[in-house]
Amino acid sequence: MIWQVRCKQFLLLTSFCLLNACGQRFEAPGIGDQQDPALSGNGRLLVTVAERSGRRAVRLVERSTGNELPLKGLNWGMPHRSPSLSWNGRYLAFILQRGERSEIVVFDRALARLRPLPLPGERSPQALTISPDGKRLGVQLLHRGQLDVELFNLPSHEPDLPPGAPLQ
Amino acid sequence: MSKKAFLYCLFSFLLLGGCEGQGLQPELGLNPRISQSGDDSSPSLAATGMAWIAPGSAQVRWLDFSTGFGSPLPGLNRSDAQPISVSVDRAGKRFALVRSLAGRTELLIYERNLALLRPIGLVPAGVPAKVAISGDGRVLAVQVSRGGRWQVELLDLP
Q: What is the ipTM of this complex?
């Protein structure tokens, strides 16, 4: 048992020593700085916040082809930040800036529907993460000058599971 | 349709309608286990738990959903390092981390089962700021500063 763990450690060490990462980048004409990356669970999709014409908006790219995928139904007039994807990329959660107010929204790519999720109280979302199955959110919230992380359930979401994963 | 069946259908319809209207529901059982005085940051959800950067000694923490309690992350945190960004795979076994140590910002991978922490070099060199790992733990997306510009880079992991 111990030698198996040691063997795995050795293999990982060797692999990491070889990993001086030479990365893959997705640039495009008209795209400025890219920030806030997130990946779908299977790593097929990459979402970033890209600057286009001075506006910060989410950009969804398929890794294998480098093609940008359309996101019809999103509100492009307001700045976006902190995107997060579920396992297959069905759900794209991010923070939308409406003037002075920030709000959490989840875009269901299967239904092309944008769903605002208001927070109770005077709390402002700063960053978020969606669970692989899309049924839970972890949100960094600003409230009275303090930043807290809180968990929320999304009971009405159909789960976005990896192939073969059991329903819980 | 009998009266009983009709009532059952009506009840199901109302129940479904109610679910559709449900927005964010706070996890009242887990949230008190996370909040501490100070600023929490960088939440990252796995299927089995959540990683985040906790205030105070600024450490990466792990909350296990099955137990409702935190679990230790041996070999990951250092008192002289400042974590900046953390991300975890679906199983909660592989973590990606950006941290500041001795004036340098570094990118690391942590294997929880093996308590193994390894740095990852960027070529060409750049300053990492934010990291995301795919749910299967095989791909990293890193926000890197190079020449005054923010770029996002993808790295395949062994």
A: 0.85
Q: Is residue A89 helix, strand or coil?
A: coil
Checking if the pLDDT of A23 tops 70, the result is no
**Mean pLDDT, all residues of chain A:** 85
Q: What is the pLDDT of residues B18-37, one digit of tens each?
A: 444 568 999 999 999 897 77
**What is the CATH class of B38-156?**
mainly beta
The whole-number pLDDT of residue A19 equals 53
Q: Which of B131, B144, B85 is nearest to A25 (CA)?
A: B144
Mind listing the pLDDT tens digit for each residue in A64-116?
Answer: 999 999 998 887 788 999 999 999 999 999 999 998 899 999 999 999 999 99
* Three-class SS state of B60: strand
A45-52: strand order across its sheet: A34-39, A45-52, A55-62
Residue A72 token pair? 């019809």
List the single best residue of A150, A157, A158, A161 to mutate versus B (max B Cβ within 10 A).
Answer: A150
Q: What is the CA radius of gyration of chain A?
A: 18
Search chain B and give the residue with CA nearest A66: B154
Q: Which residue of B has its CA nearest to A11?
A: B158
Please give the structure tokens belonging to residue B96: 């990606």
Q: CB B158 to CB A5 under 8 A?
A: no
Please answer yes or no on whether A23 and B122 come within 8 Å at the CB atom: yes
Spatial CA neighbour of A38 closest among A82, A78, A100:
A82
CA-nearest of A131, A100, A138, A101 to A116 is A101
Cβ–Cβ below 8 Å for B135 and A119: no
CA distances, A95 to each of A129, A142, B141 (Å): 10, 13, 19
Residue extents of the structural domains in chain A: 29-123
At B34, the amino acid letter reads I
**What's chain B's average pLDDT?**
87
- How long, in residues, is chain A? 168
